[in-house]
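pasting for the record
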Amino acid sequence: MLINTDAFVLKSQKYRESDSLLILYSRQYGKVSAVAKGSRKPKSKMLAGVQPFAHAEYVLYKGKSMYNVNQVEVKHSFYALREDYERLAYASYAVELVLSEASEGQGNASVFSLLGNTLTLMCCEGTILTSLIRAFELKLMAHAGYQPNLFSCTSCGQDVQSEPLYFSHSQGGIICHKCNCEIGDSAPVSLNLMKLAQIYLFSDLRSAAKMTVPASLNKQLQRLMEGYIRHHFGYFVSKSLQLVED
């Protein structure tokens, strides 16, 4: 069976002598494992299409255990992401998060578009990578069905407009002062932090990527999202990202 699909390379590793083992993220089929035979040979027509982050049209043949790549037509190589350490670290983190969220046979067009737009903006001059990645995290969680409640108490539903307030990963958002004693994993957060998260979540990605935010406030949101992502995806932040954000 042959399928034709639009996909990003989430992971690429050497397989046997000259083959590549790929994990693709397909608009239609979600996570797809595939072997690209002979793709690591210098003159291979598939070489550009097996590089990390590549966006391409793939023709895949279903083998006994996984797909084989029959043909690749590259749309965007995202070469610039592999030439700059900081961009590489953030791009690697983005695809790792998508890989944690992705399921085989179940595409998510919103996540697919978010990933493509994020990688594109990472290549652009003037993009503030720390702002872009925080917006990406929040939007990805929303598209995956885990949008945090940033406006009202997740427990009682009361609008929260002043401090003290708290955030609970298990409850999925803000907790008011009255309900806090009933929640075991809540931690104090500032109203400014929640407002920043709201802006990142609901602004368009291009606008969010140009936002100048105090480093201390963005660091607080980074730590908050680390815990939220870990709770829902079981994912720990890569060492490469810690090096550029610490």
